[in-house]
Amino acid sequence: MNGRNYNEVMARKNEIMKKALGLDYNEFEGKGISFDYEGMMNKAGYSIEEVQKIQESTSVGNTPLLELKNLTRAARTLAGPGKGARIFLKDEASSPSGSFKARRASVSCHYAAEKGYPGVIAATSGNYGAAVASQANMRNLKSIIVQEVFDSRGFGQPEILEKGRKCEAYGAEVMQLTVGPELFYLFLLTLEDTGFFNASLYTPFGIAGIETLGYELTEQVRQRCDRDPDAVVVTHAGGGNLTGTARGMAKAGVKDARIVSASVDLSGLHMASDIDFNKKSFTTGHTGFGVPFATWPDRADVPRNAARPLRYMERYVTVSQGEVFYVTEALAQIEGLERGPAGNTSLTAAFAVAQEMNEDEVVVVQETEYTGAGKHVTAQLTFARENGIEIRRGDPADQVPGKNIIIPDKASVIGIKEIDSDKLRQSYIRNCVKNNGIKPSDISEEEILFLAEEVNRDVSFVRENLEKI
Amino acid sequence: MTDKKIPAGSWVQIETTILEAGKRAEHLPEETKKQPLMMWVKGFLEKDAFIGEQVSVTTIIGRKMEGKLMAENPPYRHTFGRAIPELLSVGSELRELIKKGGR
Which residues of chain B neighbour A158 with C-beta distances below 8 Å? Predict the structure, then answer.
């Protein structure tokens, strides 16, 4: 019998993964640090037509595109003459499980059923758990969701508690853990014990499932506005949302839309800290995932992450927690839509981005998520207060994550902060060299080409940065 | 330990220690490292037992699991919280702004 302690299980990682994914990632490995990304996406993924069919069969996709007329008016009032793009919102909350994650789960569950797996497992504290549980039910599969929920005092993040409840409502087994990345150890052990499929967010299936989102929103904008979307704002965490949406838009033939990634700024808070865990009011869509996953995507729960954000990221911006809460309130108050709050990160950035754009242009916010007890502005801010976070109106520039939440005192102070994406590209190259334990001088031409594709820059950019290491 | 015996077949929550405090992964913040990694899961109780006892359960999908009996059918306690005074005027402020802008 295989050993069950931490080191023994972690040492069997590749073997467990291979069985639990039905995919041999070695097939796509190239020379040295390189691998064939498009080859992996083509071989293991599905074409967009196939994904559309899979999703149609479980009522996923074809969500409405809503025009936010009052928010557009507010943005135009604040913007200069001739400025203020029309703001549209893809209402993914109308998906079967209440978020765009149904798209990712749909393809994984289809694949798992086809391959004869008895069930599916996902390690997630987010909306993805409910999506997997819901899609598993439609495919007659069992599901297990492994969540990081509690700090050592036993206090659960209200949003994660709600997500756990929703998984249980769908009949999933929910394993609720305290804070720590060793959740992955238990995840591996459970995969091995059950023989279930690893419905990771980061397989080619999980990414192919989002391509329809980029594709659909493009078609909808063309139909409604007789033009391509000029900008699309994507909430960025693990990178799948950005990767899939950008790929889907490219497949729809979009040439030069600006894709803006947006995260909530949680700088200064440590994601594996038992103390910081309940000092944040956002459990996803934040820089605590967004930056590390961009600069080293292969930290994920699969051998090669199919979400590779730097291949698609041109502009990366952050907003503060207080600004997202304000805009979530605005969405309810002036648009009559109660959604989010975490899913409204991109909406917050879009409110600022729209003001930079011309009046005849179109900006699309590509997702919403359901709201409910625990997962609501009032729930999160009540919890924040109970955890000693100061909440006040003021200038969001004064925010300190984990100390205060500043609700903008007027709409005009809502803004975006730019993150230099070239710095992230440099970090990626550094991480790639460090994590593979190689010398920059030993990197071959083939590997340099691979790195250039990975960071979406030319080979001279890669060479310059290798020399700096 | 409470006096009330929980009957077999009840929907209960159990607790398991996954990693002891001294056996946590490296590179964790100190505050996390000094805590054990704990897990809670729900299932149907196999035999009559008291809170605090070591028990076996069968989860909703039919897996057998063991752990310390913590609660019988624990409630979902997460709520909408309270209204947030700092947000109450956001709607009227924005309506005023839109009116002023007239666009």
Answer: 78-79, 81
